[in-house]
Amino acid sequence: MTGIVITVVIVGGLALLLKWRRPAWYWLAFGALIASVRVLVTYGSVMDACNLTVSASRFRIMVARWFKKAMPPSRVPRIRRLRITRTGLVLRIRMRPGQDAFEYAAASDRLRHSFGMRQVTAREVRSGTVELAMTGYDILKRVQMPAKVDDGLLKVAVAMADDGSVAFRDYRRTPHALTLGATQSGKSVYQRRLVTALAPQPVALVGIDCKQGVELAPLARRLSALATTPEEALGLLEALVERMEGIYQVIRREQRISADIPDAEITADIWGLPEKIRPVPVVLTIDEVAELALVATRAEEKRRNRIVTALVRLAQLGRAAGIYLDIYGQRFGSELGDGITMLRAQLSGRTAHRVNDESSAKMAFGDINPDAVFAAIQIATGQPGTAITADATGSWSRIRTPHTTLRQAVNACNRHAHLTPHLPELADFRPALDLAPGKAAPAIESVTEAA
Ligand SMILES: Nc1ncnc2c1ncn2[C@@H]1O[C@H](COP(=O)(O)OP(=O)(O)OP(=O)(O)O)[C@@H](O)[C@H]1O
C-alpha cells in the first residue's frame, strides 16, 4: 500500500475518532499534501540514489582544489513545479546538463520504490524539462473518470491512463484507429464506451457488425446505418466511398481559389467549409474485421477484395471528408489477405487489449514502439479492459476504460436517438427499428442501468 493511502487511512481514522466532520476530498487532499512534503524532503537523496544527479561544475571542483576544501556535492536537478492531482503528484524538473529524458524513464521504477509511490511515469515536456507523474494507488483497478474532462466535438474521454491522465480518442487528430484483443479482453466495452460518448454529439454513427449484429444492433436507434452481413457491409462501404467522393466535389467547388480569396478561406477538408453546408462527420465502427476479410470460396474472395479496397480508400481519403474509422478485431495481420497491411498502415491510432501471442501485439505496435509490444504481452487476464494505446508519434500508455454495460450504451443511444442524422447515400442501410405501426418506441430508460 502506498504512502498516500496509508496517510489518508491514518488521518481519516484519526478524524473519525476525533469526530472531525470533513468531506472525503478534504482528507484526500490532506493526504496528498503530506505525500508531497515527503517527496520534497527526500527528493535530493532519492535523486542521488537513483543516479539522477550530475557532478559539480569543473569550476567549483577547481576552486575546491585550489583552496584545499572538500569536494562540492553532486548537483541535483531542480524542481520547477509540484502539482497535486486527483491521483497523486506531478513534478516538473529542469534536467542538469548532460541528462536526457530517457534516464528519467529508465529510473522510473527505482523512483517509484524510493518515493513509495504506486507508479512513476517520466515524460519530456520540452527541451531540458521532464515531468514525473506519480500516482499513489492503482488507478486502473477501479476506473473513475474525472467529473470534468477537456473533451469536445469528436474528442472523447475513453479511458484512464495509469499515470493519472485521461486517454482521449481524438478523431480529428488521429482519424483512424485499430483496436485489437483476444476474446473476452474488453474490446466490446471499449467500443461501447466510444459509441456512448459520441451519441450526444452531432455526428453520424455507422456500424458494421458481422457477428449478426449482436454488439451494434441494440444501439440501432442512434445509428445512421448498420450492416450485419458481409454483403451489406460491401454495399455500405461503397456507399460511404460514394459519399466521400461527393464531399470532395463540394470542397473543390468551395475552394474557388483566385487571387482575391484570403488564405484562411482556402480549405482542403470539411472543417474549412461554411457551417451551413458542412457535411456531418461520420464515425464508422467495424466489429470483428476478420469476418469481412476471411473467405472460403472464390465468389467470397471477389467480395472481400472489394471490401478491402473500399476500406483502404476510406482510410486514405476519408479524413478530409469527415469520415473516421474505428476497426476492431482479434488479429490484424497478413493472414487476413492482400491489402490488410496497407490498411493497417493507415490506422495510426492503435490499442491492444490482452493478446494471446507476441505476433498479435506486434500487429498493433511492431511498427510503432517495441516497448509497447512488450507491455501488451504483459497484460494479465484478471483485468479485462486494460489495454496499451499508442499513436504514430511512438508514445504509448497503459489504459483502462470505465466499465460500460450494454444497457448503459443502449440507454445513451435511445436518449439521443433524435440526433441521428439521415444520410441519403446510406438510406438503404438505415436500421429497421422493428416497431409495429402505431406502436410507440420503447421507453428510453425502461430498464434501470446496470451498476
Ligand atoms: N473496462 C472494463 N472494466 C471491467 N470489466 C470489463 C471491462 N472491459 C471488459 N470487461 C469485462 O470483461 C468481459 C469481456 O469483455 P468484452 O465483451 O468487451 O470482451 P471482447 O474482447 O469484446 O470479447 P469477444 O471478442 O469475445 O466479444 C465482460 O464480462 C466485461 O464485463
From TrEMBL:
GO terms for molecular function: ATP binding; DNA binding. SUPFAM superfamilies: P-loop containing nucleoside triphosphate hydrolases (SSF52540). ATP binds at G181, A182, T183, Q184, S185, G186, K187, S188. It comes from the Bacteria. Residues 163-362 form the FtsK domain. The chain crosses the membrane at residues 24-46. Keywords: ATP-binding, Membrane, Nucleotide-binding, Transmembrane, Transmembrane helix. The keyword Transmembrane applies. Signal peptide: none annotated. InterPro entries: FtsK/SpoIIIE/SftA, FtsK_dom, P-loop_NTPase. The keyword Nucleotide-binding applies. This is Plasmid transfer protein.
